[in-house]
Each structure stands twice: as C-alpha cells, then as structure tokens.
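Hey L., structure's done. Input below.
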Amino acid sequence: MLSVEKLNEFGANTNEALERCMNNEGFYIMLVEKALKDDSLERLDSALKSGNLDEGFEIAHSLKGVLGNLSLTPLYEVIVEITELLRSRTQTDYSPYMEKAFSIKNRLIELSE
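Output:
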C-alpha cells in the first residue's frame, strides 16, 4: 500500500505536495494512485515512436504539470527533459528517456503494491 513514507523514499517532495492538498494525506495518496493508473506515459511513448512531436509535446507538457503538482520528483525530472526537447521539436531518439521514465514509474507502482 502506498504511503507518504514510501513516497519520501521514492524521492517525492511530499511536504510540498501535501501543502497543495491541504495536508490531506488520503487525498494526496488517492491522486498519486490515480496518476499511476493514467495511460499518458504510454500515449507519449506511442506518439514519439510514430514521430508525432506535436502530440508528444502536448502529452508531455500535461504530464509534467500533473507530476509537478504531485511532486513526484524522479519521474517529473525525466518528463521535464522530454518536454523541453519536444518544445523545440528536437528530432532525437527518445527511447532512452522513455525507458528511464517507465523504469521510474514501475518502481513507483511496486511501492504501491
């Protein structure tokens, strides 16, 4: 089961996130769990693999906002890198970034089990 303590171990800035959630731990955990079930990372991967950088940017930018608000720092930092590359429509191999993002997300999912 996911907890604030586990999220701290993961590297999340839970103090900052809890401030945004009016210090309601249950609400914060619910939002994190909802974010983990979201398919945005998979949609981002698909957009990048198909070369659709415009769609990729829109998804990455939205994901960046969600992860930033939840202060899921390790995953947020990777998505920031991707977002900034996509902002300038940089043609590059995004697979190392996506592999890292999926690895971090999977680590977070494991913490929630």
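The first helix runs from residue 4 to 10. The helical segments are 4-10, 14-20, 25-37, 40-49, 53-69, 73-87, 95-112.

-- N.
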